[in-house]
From TrEMBL:
A Pfam family that the UniProt record links to this protein: DEDD_Tnp_IS110
InterPro entries: Transp_IS110-like_N (IPR002525), Transpos_IS110 (IPR047650), Transposase_20 (IPR003346)
Protein name: Mini-circle putative transposase for IS117
GO biological process, one term: DNA transposition
Record PANTHER family: PUTATIVE TRANSPOSASE FOR IS117-RELATED, TRANSPOSASE FOR INSERTION SEQUENCE ELEMENT IS1111A
All copies of domain Transposase IS116/IS110/IS902 C-terminal, residue ranges: 274-332
Highest taxon, organism lineage: Bacteria
GO MF assignments: DNA binding; transposase activity
Residue ranges of the TM segments: none
């Protein structure tokens, strides 16, 4: 028996076929606990058991439905939607499409070509938790940088002194001292009026612990230098926009820091952490990202080349007739590839 599920946001279409391709059952289930229970009952009616679970094909590897299906030893295959669309053409060239029909196509993919597709890895619960945290941390870093870029673009329009003061330092505008000072003085006019004592207090609030005199003198000199300026009302309006962006940037920075702490803590609890940390240049955060993408299922990759292909470091060859081309791989795990370059 083979099962295919065409998933959607509110409901899912299910098809069950036997080894000859005969459609044994089809159903539409809701995306809630009642629907998931109906699905498991349907599978049980057609021979699903803990000892002999029915494999399932679905076009996603995420969500509560997939989590329910992965309980026990059931194999769940996440079929690439592009591949599924190619299989659809095997059953007809009219280009017709329906959700129940897509579920049937997915079930038949397993019936005919299950050997050509890989089931979702059987990672441990801790490894799955690390995956959630590491990916969320990376998303938070990207979000933080996106907001920082918006702040930079805004400062270029009316506040070049702020860019001159912070953009060349490590961390740039995401630094705590940069955000604190800009919140205190969101316009060039206010920045020019800051005293050494006010700057020193702002740096202390940001967590700075040394070199106060040098830094405050540098900042005051920059803020009191001559720059082109907007009219006061326009400058104040830009300042209000900057304060709004700084609130978003503060939240993004805090989220990235919190998720970094959580990801590193979970990673250190994993049995494979010592192995990954033994690699030169790998710290807890980067190690967590690698473990998140590779997982701890030792049967996931057949050999080293399979892992290289998954990471995008193994080249691909296209040879046809007199043409022979060797190039880089575009279909890969982008997060794992990104970690490899850090």
């Amino acid at each position: 028996m083979f099962c295919g599920i065409d998933w959607a946001e509110r409901h899912h279409d299910v098809a069950v076929v036997d080894d000859t391709g005969t459609l044994l059952a089809k159903a539409r289930i809701s995306d809630d606990a009642a629907g998931y229970s109906k699905l498991l009952d349907l599978l049980a009616e057609h021979g699903d058991s803990p000892e002999n679970p029915i494999p399932v094909a679905i076009e996603t590897s995420r969500g509560l439905l997939v989590a329910v299906l992965r309980t026990g030893d059931r194999k769940v295959f996440a079929i690439n939607p592009l591949a599924a669309s190619r299989y659809r053409d095997r059953h007809g060239v009219s280009r017709k499409k329906s959700d129940p029909g897509d579920a049937l196509v997915l079930a038949n993919i397993l019936r005919t070509d299950m050997h050509a597709h890989r089931p979702l890895p059987a990672d441990s619960e801790l490894a799955q938790a690390i995956t959630v945290l590491a990916r969320a941390q990376q998303d938070a870093v990207w979000s933080r940088q996106q907001i920082a870029n918006q702040v930079r673009s805004l400062l270029r329009e009316y506040y070049p002194a702020a860019l001159h003061a912070f953009q060349d330092k490590e961390g740039g505008l995401t630094r705590a001292d940069a955000r604190t000072v800009l919140t205190l003085a969101p316009t060039p006019a206010k920045a020019a009026k800051l005293t050494l004592a006010q700057l020193r207090a702002a740096l202390k609030r940001s967590g700075r612990t040394r070199a106060f005199d040098t830094e405050t003198a540098r900042l005051r000199e920059i803020f009191r230098s001559e720059y082109a300026r907007h009219r006061p009302a326009v400058e104040d309006a830009f300042g209000q926009q900057l304060l709004a962006l700084l609130k978003q940037l503060d939240a993004a920075c805090q989220a990235a820091d919190d998720l970094t702490t959580a990801a590193e803590a979970a990673f250190k609890e994993h049995a494979d952490s010592d192995i990954l940390l033994s690699f030169p240049g790998l710290g807890p955060l980067l190690g967590a990202r690698l473990l998140a993408e590779i997982g701890d299922d030792r049967t996931r990759f057949a050999d080293a080349r399979a892992l290289k292909s998954y990471a995008g470091s193994a080249p691909i060859t296209r040879a046809s007739g007199k043409k022979h081309f060797v190039g880089r791989r575009f279909v890969k795990n982008n997060r794992l590839m990104h970690a490899g370059f850090l």
